[in-house]
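I hope you will forgive my troubling you with a question about protein structure. Could you please explain, in whatever detail you think fit, how the structure tokens follow from the sequence? Thank you for your consideration; the sequence and its tokens are set out here.
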Amino acid sequence: MSKYTGKPHRVERPRAEIYDQLSNLSKIRERLDSIPADLREKLGTVNFPDNETLAFTAPGVGEMKFRIVERTAPEAVRFLADTGVVPIYVTITLAEVEAASTDVAATIEAEIPMMLRPLIGGKLQEAADQFGKMFGQLNA
């Protein structure tokens, strides 16, 4: 399994609060409706078909759906792609910096044949960075 870990993004909110939102996506859906239009535009097409699923449109890939498959309170939430040939896992990790400050980072894991890693590894690394940034912005 190949692993790609994104850069952490600092969010000035307590880790338990962010975990609470990540583990029940209806709370992020509510926040999404209240964020400024310019920030929402940067996030692109993000929606939540239910409290367990996150869907978005990825350039060159189309719609991707991820559903929650594991929760580790208050440190991490793990998602699995519902689409695609290869199972893709995204784990959002929350590291407490201070009582009211948390680093949000994403790790993508996928079974990629060795000969394809040089071709798509960079894209998956970019995606890991973007996932962390997206969840950080949704929780800011």
In short: The first strand starts at residue 2 and ends at 5.
